[in-house]
Amino acid sequence: MLGAIIGDIVGSRFEWHNIKTKEFDFFSPECFFTDDSVMTIALAEAILASGGQYGDLGRLAVGSMRALGLKYGDRGYGGMFKGWLASSDPKPYHSFGNGAAMRVSPCGFAAKTLEEAVLLSRLVTEVSHDHPEGIKGAEATAVGIFLARTGHGLAAIRDHLSRNYYPLDFTLDSIRADYAFNETCQETVPQAIEAFLESSGFEDAIRGAISIGGDSDTLAAITGGLAEAFYGLPDELARQGLGFLDPPLARIVDDFRAAYPRAAQRPPARD
């Protein structure tokens, strides 16, 4: 899940100033963590608190998202979600925003089976983003991460996600010129998945996601979770990424990574 946070941080300075190329400084003093990172860390905290017993995960997710969301209230939350955070009794509001997918990576790393990846993503998503497209976007991301970290090749991952979620019938080059900012799952998740599937490594995946423009931090967060699961995370990038976080947030990330290390210790299959 640190890969999603790094994607968010690297993409943060391009959200409102898109760059249509892969050539840019990866980390910059202008980078910062956004709501994507805060909510990802909140779900990691909820999963840790559940102790592997997920019957109460939805409630734990709501509690962690509200606690960290209100503590870090200036990190760019959407209007509806900001109201959800502030409510004393937050209810799902039929959203299909891409926030459902940008925060879900801990589920893909914690799941022991494909079925559990689906279950966990639904439990943490339906508490706010209960529209079918919101649930689908989160599930596709969590499932992709599970497949990537358990040794499936790029072709197999593409096939599974294409058959079950989105027709991945485009390339980044074919959409780069015209792709624009969009906050929906259905116009963000497929593009983020494609950036991962076309990549040659973790950093290249992030660069590809940012290169198409749009909601750059969220695109790169979704791609970053997938890319970390597949390639692993270079130690230096992990160190630099953690350095952008406040110490309490970094501690949750460290605790989660210790509890749920990436499973595949061999080089990932390419085919």
Explained architecture:
By secondary structure, this protein is mainly alpha-helical. It has one domain (2-15, 27-259): ADP-ribosylation/Crystallin J1 (ADP-ribosylglycohydrolase fold). It has 15 helices and no strands. The protein has helices spanning 2-11, 35-50, 57-71, 79-86, 99-102, 105-110, 114-125, 132-149, 154-164, 172-175, 189-197, 202-211, 216-231, 235-243, 247-259. Helix 3 (57-71) packs across helix 7 and helix 11 (189-197) packs across helix 12. The longest helix has 18 residues, at 132-149. 50% of the residues are buried. The mean pLDDT is 96.
- Structural class label: mainly alpha
> Given the C-alpha coordinates, what overall shape results?
globular
What share of the residues does DSSP label as strand, in percent? under 5%
CATH fold annotation: ADP-ribosylglycohydrolase fold
Tell me about the largest β-sheet: none
Series of secondary-structure elements, N-terminal to C-terminal: HHHHHHHHHHHHHHH
Query: Fraction of residues in helices?
Result: 55-70%
* Mean pLDDT score: 96
- Number of separate strands: 0
The fourth-level CATH homologous superfamily is: ADP-ribosylation/Crystallin J1
CATH architecture: Orthogonal Bundle
Looking at the chains present, what oligomeric state does this protein adopt? single chain
Question: At the first level of CATH, what is the class?
Answer: Mainly Alpha
The count of domains is 1
How many helices?
Answer: 15
Radius of gyration: 16 Å
> Low-confidence stretches at least 5 residues in length (pLDDT < 50)?
none
Separation of the first and last Cα atoms: 24 Å
